[in-house]
Design goal:
Structural class: alpha+beta
Number of helices: 9
Number of strands: 22
Shape: globular
Oligomer: single chain
Distance between the termini: 21 Å
């Protein structure tokens, strides 16, 4: 999916990501299993198995040349511990942080949840050391305590940072359950393209999602989004405006038939039938998922931590829609929408259980919106009857450099929408290409601004127009859309 250039900007990759040994990752899991077995069957907060787990990971990192700090905190009358490990070098004001919770529940050893993420991160950290990786960003790893009791360790860590120290963390990657036996391949939905739950992550989260998606695309594995629902340690980071991303292979949710067709495994069964149970042992791991996800973590670390930002370059075209600049509604005279036509307007907010038309723009007071007025009800000026379109004036693109179109957008609808409803952005030049698509679905999708960026290199040297379309395929459905802050840059 399209992604903005913020936490993971356009870059030059300086070092090829390694193939992480899944055998090494499983060896760490075996150590955590042995620790649990020797300490009452678990590695939970306040129990001896947890501190022994911290000591194991710390010993590995100390021997590999990391600077480690054990941070203590108190919860439920017991002392908890976070382990923080810094790799030397990189810009101290530009930190990439990689985290996983190390604790289990009291019911079992917690090998998938979350020995898997903890061990994969540990092996990636050790591979950084083996390769003596030189990073442009400062690289920091964290292993969190008491996640199972409400993100207590990661919250204690973030709260311990000054505002200046928080601002230095430009990206946080979270890996919680990356080896589920009936695995799915979920990426945290940084840009809210799924339109589910709590909305997008802080600016830059979409770029982190895209980086991970790029890896899975390269190995031919499809992914799905998963909402920032607050169930893992990204929570305190995004609450403080820090971009976040990560991988999740599923917990107590049920794999659908479509997911089983796409990923293998068993439909109608939980992704992890041993979630929070005594059977979450080393037998509860999907080796293929663990292998793929460990390599994906390494890809993200190498891609982001060794990248050099490209200067933002020259603005070729920009429009915040605060003044009229020549956009034309229904430019071909073929629109079929009977209401809710695209216009440049000062939008009024509408809602029907969820936010639909957003009354606030990304900048200023105006945007491109489907029927700016509120009307007597949420359905008065939504898109009805088919397609509505609006087209930019002609824009002459340079013939050289990297050309990028970026914009802010939302598509909102109720559960009477269908996959035939959509928001499109198209480029009209020597050919016409749809460069961005967001389809509707039979579910409530709240309006929330997200960002997208796409390459225009194929149109270098041409005169183009930007065509934006929204469609309500049936008059009964309630569909709203908006676009703001359109920009083309050359770098």
């Amino acid at each position: 999916m399209p992604a903005p250039a913020s936490a993971a900007p356009a870059k030059i990759l300086l070092a090829a990501a390694p193939n992480i040994s899944v055998a090494n990752v499983k060896a760490h899991l075996s150590q955590l299993q042995s620790i649990a077995t020797a300490n009452g069957g678990n590695r939970a907060h306040g129990r001896p198995g947890y501190l022994a787990s911290v000591n194991y990971v710390k010993g590995q990192l100390d021997a590999a040349g990391y600077t480690t700090v054990v941070q203590s905190f108190t919860y439920n009358g017991a002392t908890g511990y976070n382990l923080i490990a810094d790799w030397p070098g990189g810009d101290p004001d530009d930190v990439l942080m990689v985290g996983a919770h190390l604790d289990s529940v009291t019911a079992g050893p917690g090998i998938n949840d979350n020995g898997s993420g903890s061990s994969a991160n540990l092996e990636v950290a050790l591979e950084v050391s083996r390769q003596a990786l030189s990073t442009t960003k400062h690289l920091r790893f964290g292993w969190w305590g008491a996640e199972e009791l409400g993100l207590r360790g990661s919250t204690a860590y973030v709260n311990s940072l000054s505002a200046a120290e928080k601002a230095k963390i430009k990206a946080y990657l979270n890996f919680d359950m990356v080896g589920s036996p009936n695995a799915g391949y979920f990426l945290y939905d940084g840009d809210n393209s799924d339109g589910v739950g709590s909305g997008p992550g802080p600016a830059g989260s979409a770029a982190l999602e895209q980086t991970l998606k790029d890896y899975f695309t390269s190995i031919g594995v499809p992914t799905e989004g998963t909402d920032f629902d607050g169930r893992s340690d990204y929570g305190p980071f995004i609450a403080n405006g820090i971009p976040a991303g990560g991988i999740f292979t599923g917990a107590d949710g049920t794999k659908t038939a479509a997911q089983a067709t796409k990923w293998g495994g068993t439909s109608g069964t939980a992704f992890d039938v041993c979630y929070h149970r005594a059977c979450d042992t080393t037998s509860n791991i999907n080796d293929t998922a663990l292998d793929r996800n460990s390599d994906a973590i390494a890809y993200a670390v190498w891609t982001i931590a060794t990248s050099t930002p490209v200067p933002p370059g020259t603005t070729v075209y920009s429009d915040t829609f605060e003044t009229a600049t020549g956009w034309t509604a229904n430019p071909s005279g073929t629109d079929t929408a009977t209401a809710g036509a695209f216009e440049r307007g000062d939008p009024a907010a509408t809602s029907s259980g969820v936010a639909l038309q957003l009354g606030t723009t990304v900048s200023g007071s105006f945007d491109l919106v489907t029927g700016a007025a509120a009307g007597s009800s949420a359905g008065t000026y939504d898109v009805d009857g088919g397609v509505t379109s609006i087209r930019s004036p002609a824009i002459t693109l340079p013939s050289s450099g990297t050309l990028t179109l970026s914009f802010s957008w939302y598509l909102a609808h109720l559960n009477n929408a269908t996959s035939a409803d959509y928001l499109w952005v198209r480029i009209v030049g020597s050919t016409t290409t749809t460069v961005f698509t967001q389809a509707g679905a039979a579910s409530n999708r709240a309006g929330a601004w997200a960002t997208a960026s796409v390459s225009l290199n194929a149109y270098a040297g041409q005169s183009i127009r930007i065509l934006i379309e929204a469609n309500d395929s049936g008059t009964a459905s309630l569909v709203e859309a908006g676009v703001d802050d359109v920009k083309i840059t050359q770098s």
